[in-house]
Design goal:
The protein has 577 residues and is of the alpha/beta class. The chain contains 18 helices and 26 strands. 33% of the residues lie in helices and 26% in strands.
Length: 577
């Protein structure tokens, strides 16, 4: 059973099923309020705050948290003069109210800068709320926080503010948990005890501050089950059941990384209870269990006996970055696709219709920072002059399948995880009401946005044009096609690009097939499928070439992808019938 309130790292979790506060008095008497109060005082002491030292002199031999809690309860119904008359012990602290006002403001600021989550458990409703009232309850809780804060401040100052700022002080995210019966092999049975998320309420913009802002290294394939000796406290984990492409994926994450798990809602379609009940997942990912020696481990395992791909990343501060969550999931997806004879593609693919009526399905391939997402952004910004409609099939990872005597592209994600620097500033502001921001104050700041639908990414679009994103070389022609399939394969397999700081790489680097998420670990298997896929592209006379985005060339970070997009529009007009 998940406890009433927990405070982990920079997040708090309220279990509304066990306790839901409806009045200011209930709020101040709750375990959650007292816990936050103590954490704030502890944090201030670490920073050697003079304010705490002064307040502690008034508290005398009592814990400061107990003194202030009792004072706040009185200030719900009495002003400072009435409190002093009732209890002379508060005379000194209330004679000059500057310190107590500063403390209240600091505590309120501290609360609002925590990541705040609330949950209900459908199959264990006690004194909390029913799940169909969750949205209303979330709004009422936000109003309760504001009301309590303002009431206490009014009774301290005996004045009302001239300007009211309706700051979002309630929960950032609410989610409904339930226990769902799923089919898992016996060696994974402990995972069936973990509660499954089946509803999420996001209040964007949601801004989170993970410890890390880039991913390091690659995921290693191991040949024994990495979960065999891992201890998992099922009360500390949640399951996000996702549709990753065509695969049902159970993503189990530790509460320390709740923000990373919830952010999945903007990236992968949340599976329904009907999708998962009594069904076997295709992929399993455990994110944030602890190794006994505290070591970092980022591995995956192909459980052939159970036709199951298993990912595991151990609990260390070094993995507190969404790239470790997203990219392992895509690695599992890609290995599964390779096992089925299909080719995972690292890049972006769109179905565009120009105002002239011409339509094409364009795929741009490249590793992190090569310019694939930036080219999509350029297409979008040029839409007023050239584009009638654009459907995103994939933006980061997709799959090419040889079907119906042609090559078709399929997607994996309904969202995009992109660098803020690579988006037009106005676009990111316009999308704030749907966005999840990560470390917006740091290099490699990211935003996760929903950009397409599950129906679109799973439709299957024939590839009309395939281009490799060259981000570091200049060329007289922006688009250059290959006549020789072997030269085309060699360029794509080399996977050259100039790193842009999205990982720990620097300079011009290469990665096998521009895809270190499955193909790199399965080179021989991938090469066979590359031959089959590219031979079919050339057999059907599908244009295969390079597009020079210049993204990594100084001064061309925006102009390069925009020029590439214009060149592509011109090329399509001249060559696509």
């Amino acid at each position: 059973m998940i406890k009433e309130f927990s405070h982990n790292r920079n997040n708090v979790i309220l279990n509304f099923s066990l306790n839901y506060c409806k009045t200011s008095k209930e709020l101040l008497e709750s375990t959650g309020f007292y816990t936050v109060l103590k954490h704030y005082i502890k944090q201030q002491k670490k920073e050697d705050a003079l304010l705490i030292e002064r307040l502690e002199t008034f508290s005398q031999e009592r814990e400061l948290s107990d003194t202030l809690l009792e004072l706040f309860k009185l200030l719900l119904i009495l002003d400072t003069e009435e409190v002093k008359n009732l209890n002379p012990d508060y005379q000194k602290i209330l004679d000059d109210t500057t310190d107590i006002i500063d403390f209240v403001e600091g505590l309120y600021f501290y609360w609002r800068h925590l990541e705040r989550y609330a949950l209900i458990q459908k199959d264990n409703i006690t004194s909390g709320i029913e799940h169909n009232q969750f949205i209303k309850a979330s709004n009422n809780f936000a109003n309760l926080i504001l009301t309590t804060y303002r009431l206490i401040e009014h009774n301290i100052t005996n004045t009302y503010p001239n300007v009211y700022r309706q700051a979002h002080a309630g929960i950032n995210v609410g989610f409904v948990l339930s226990h769902v019966d799923v089919k898992l092999p016996k060696q994974y049975k402990i995972l069936t005890e973990i509660n499954t998320i089946n509803k999420i309420i996001l209040t964007p913009p949601f801004i989170m501050y993970p410890i890390m802002n880039k991913r390091e290294g690659v995921f290693k394939e191991v040949f024994k089950n990495p979960l065999k000796d891992v201890a998992i406290n099922t009360n500390h984990f949640f399951c996000y059941p996702a549709k990753v492409g065509e695969f049902l994926t159970h993503i189990y994450f530790h509460r320390d990384f709740l923000s990373q798990g919830i952010a999945l809602a903007n990236l992968f379609e949340l599976a329904t209870q009907e999708d998962i009940e009594n069904q076997s997942p295709d992929l399993i990912y455990v994110f944030g269990a602890r190794n006994s020696d505290g070591s970092k481990e980022t591995v995956f395992y192909d459980d052939k006996d159970n036709d199951l791909l298993v990912g595991y990343v151990s609990n260390t501060e070094n993995i507190d970055y969404f790239g470790y969550m997203k990219k392992m999931i895509l690695t599992l997806h890609n290995v599964k696709m390779l096992n089925r004879g299909h080719l995972p593609m690292h890049g972006a693919m769109v179905n565009i219709t120009l105002k002239s009526g011409l339509s094409a399905n364009i795929a741009i391939i490249g590793d992190s920072g090569a310019g694939k997402s930036e080219s999509l952004e350029a297409f979008r910004t040029l839409s007023e002059d050239h584009l009638k409609e654009m459907k995103i099939i994939f933006d980061d990872m997709g799959t090419f399948k040889v079907e119906d005597d042609t090559v078709k592209g399929y997607g994996t994600e309904i969202g995009a995880f992109v660098r803020l620097d690579d988006l037009d500033m106005g676009y990111s502001f316009k999308e704030m009401d749907r966005a999840i921001f990560m470390n917006p104050n740091r290099i490699n700041a990211r935003v996760i946005l929903p950009i397409t639908t599950y129906q679109t990414i799973q439709k299957g679009y024939p590839v009309d044009v395939l281009l490799y994103a060259n981000n570091f070389e200049e060329n007289e022609e922006t688009i250059v096609l290959f006549n020789d399939p072997e030269k085309a394969k060699a360029t794509y397999i080399e996977g050259a690009r100039k790193a842009k700081g999205t990982t720990n790489e620097t300079g011009v680097v290469t990665s096998f097939f521009a895809n270190p998420f499955g193909p790199l670990q399965r080179k021989d298997q991938t090469l066979e499928i590359i031959d089959k896929t590219y031979d079919k592209l050339f057999e059907k006379n599908i244009p295969v070439g390079q597009i020079y985005t210049k993204l990594a060339i100084e001064g061309f970070e925006r102009k390069g992808p925009e020029a590439a997009a214009l060149a592509l529009f011109d090329w399509l007009t001249q060559n696509k019938k």
